[in-house]
Amino acid sequence: MHARAAAALTSVAGSVVIGVLVLPTAAQAAPAHNRTAVVAHRGASAYAPENTLAAIDRAHALGITWVENDVQRTKDGALVVLHDTTLARTTNVEQVYPDRSPWNVADFTSSEIAKLDAGSWKGVEYTGARIPTLHEYLRRVDRNHQKLLMEIKSPELYPGIEGQILRELRRDGWLDSWDVKHRLIIQSFNADSMRTLHARRPDIKTGFLGTPAVSELPAYAKFADQINPSHTTISADYVKAVHALKGPHGKPLESYTWTVNDAKTAQQVAGFGVDGIISNAPDVVRAAVGG
Question: Is there a contact between 73 and 105 (Cβ–Cβ < 8 Å)?
Fold first, then answer.
């Protein structure tokens, strides 16, 4: 996830009154920290190449249950797991296809992408790692008995991707009632995408990535179960304002914050009352907050 402006959304009338909150010390806040979910950002991406099967496995080896990923679509309509909308940063695409600048994901077929090395930039031991298809990724998460926080990356570039993702999830057995309730959340920076997904499958838990103004939160609560902001944009008062509202499933809105990679910041945001912390180094965060 990269920080970006919240998707445009018309403000609604009304406001949330935020009371005075006494921020606990780290020791006093420890019991609350035990309820904080820890999510491996793009897998355990501090240690293995992001969004690869190796990163999922590294998170599993660390005992991390939740993993986060990013989904995009290739030129021939395949769903693949990759963060950037171009292939340049995390693969050898410039060497393999030197004349295909700017190397956008949407300009390459799945078979062309399958030829790329998506691991050696992280370390020689990961040479040959591939960009996984969503199908491959879901199978590995399932094999590891993990849970998935899925980001639809730049859906404005891929019309209809929400329905396509739902079809893939159904084919891979992720849309039965237990999985939907306990091990799947779908999020995006694009509010329209989350509205579309919620309309198609209102039972799926959804998250909006960003930090909407407190006055706009009631509008987001109509289609999002979570408000998931950058840790640099929140406070205890903001998290309290999020929790004061109920989402589309009639439960208080949650807040998962990103991307926290050190113990001090993890303890700070846990003290704010966040429900989850997304981290490249999830073991560091878990040790800090007990999640």
Answer: yes
The closest of 46, 81, 44 to 59, measured between CA atoms, is 44
Q: Has 83 been annotated as catalytic?
A: yes
Instruction: Determine the Cα–Cα distance for residues 85 and 87; give it in Å rounded to an integer.
Output: 7
Choice among 41, 60, 198, 231 that is catalytic: 41
Q: How many CB atoms lie within 10 A of CB 192?
A: 15
- Which amino acid would we find at residue 262? D
Q: Given phi > 0 = left and psi -120 to 50 = alpha, else beta, which region is 253?
A: beta
Catalytic residue selected from 2, 33, 60, 83: 83
Model confidence pLDDT, tens digit, residues 254-287: 999 999 999 999 999 999 999 999 999 999 999 9
Asked if the model's pLDDT at residue 23 lies above 90, the reply is no
Segment (H or E) for 110: helix 110-113
Instruction: Please compute the mean of the pLDDT values over residues 193-210 and round it to a whole number.
Output: 98
Active-site annotation holds for 41: yes
| Amino acid identity for residue 113 in this structure | I
Give the global pTM: 0.89
Distance, CA of 226 to chain centre = 11
Whether the CB-CB separation of 151 and 184 falls below 8 Å is answered with no
